[in-house]
Specification:
The structure holds 2 protein chains of 2 kinds.
Chain A lengths: L8 H12 L4 E4 H7 L9 E5 L5 H9 L2 E4 L8 E4 L5 E4 L8 H4 L4 E5 L2 E5 L2 H11 L2 H20 L9 H5 L4
Parallel strand pairs in A: 2-5
Antiparallel strand pairs in A: 1-2, 3-4, 6-7
Chain B lengths: L30 H33 L5 H11 L3 H19 L1
Helix pairs in contact in B: 1-2
The chains are: A alpha+beta, B mainly alpha.
């Protein structure tokens, strides 16, 4: 099967292995905002893991030939290796609660048969307001307007139908 | 003759490829006629979509008067795309902007 649009085969494989091994993580930051319709641009996909040190993460990364590189001098924590370059690791989210609390309000995006958890737009906005960095300040009005639009139209996130899902209910 | 789609034509488009043929063959709509109809139809469709979009922007702004109309419009356009396509667009533009800055 061809990779869904933004991901290469190896990036998709990494996400699928993490989901298959039931690693608790979610997409956060502007990539999460854009998945929900906010008109913002980003260069990477931020992943927030509940327990970064848990063995099943390193096993999942090993399975796809990638590895977790802890933060050092000027380097943030990152994933390195095949298909991992697109993803950034987030250790903490400013202005938000614990991972276990935030995941309750996340939205789900279909990734084939699996579901990718994505931090909800209102919580992304809260984290940007709390972080208050120059680059965050620029995005706050856009995120606020996108959230207002979402609330006004109450449009559910469109999910791509899988063959299995579209076949259901047919006699 | 200037048509509604801005094309200059020497005369009316033939409606059927073999119009006037007395051989008894079935007459098919001419290619030029079908192309023109398709263009008019897609043109009208695009205009209807723009009107609908404008109305939706107006509704959102009525509820949120301080929102920026451009942000609202772009959000509404993106909501018509599947989520992964939205991310795709965002990544392409984000990387292009980063390359341009360098």
């Amino acid at each position: 099967m061809a990779a869904p649009l933004p991901f290469s085969e190896s990036e998709l494989r990494l996400l699928r292995v993490l989901l298959k091994r039931k690693v608790r993580f979610m997409v956060v930051g502007l990539s999460a905002a854009t998945l929900q319709g906010a008109p913002v641009v980003t260069q990477d996909v931020d992943l927030w893991f509940e327990h970064l040190g848990e063995p099943k993460i390193s096993r999942a990364l090993q399975e796809v030939g990638a590895a977790y590189v802890p933060p050092s001098n000027f380097n943030p924590p990152m994933l390195a290796g095949a298909g991992a370059e697109l993803f950034d690791v987030v250790l903490r989210m400013d202005g938000l609660g614990a991972f276990a609390d935030e995941i309750k309000n996340c939205v789900e995006i279909s990734l084939g048969r699996q579901k990718l958890k994505v931090l909800s737009l209102d919580r992304i906005l809260a984290s940007k307001i709390a972080a208050n960095r120059a680059k965050d300040i620029l995005t706050i009005p856009v995120l606020r307007d996108a959230l207002a639009t979402l609330m006004a139209v109450k449009t559910p996130i469109r999910k791509r139908k899988t063959k299995r899902a579209s076949g259901r209910g047919k006699s | 003759m200037l048509t509604s789609i801005g094309r200059t034509l020497s005369g009316p488009l033939p409606l059927f490829e073999n119009a006037g043929d007395k051989s008894g063959k079935i007459a098919y709509p001419s290619t030029a006629c079908m192309k023109q109809r398709a263009q008019i139809s897609s043109d009208a469709k695009a205009k209807r979509w723009a009107l609908r979009l404008s109305a939706r922007v107006g509704k959102v702004l009525a509820a949120h008067p301080h929102a920026d109309p451009d942000n609202v419009r772009h959000t509404l356009i993106l909501l018509e795309q599947p989520p992964l396509e939205r991310l795709q667009r965002s990544l392409i533009r984000g990387r292009a902007a980063a390359i341009f800055r360098k």
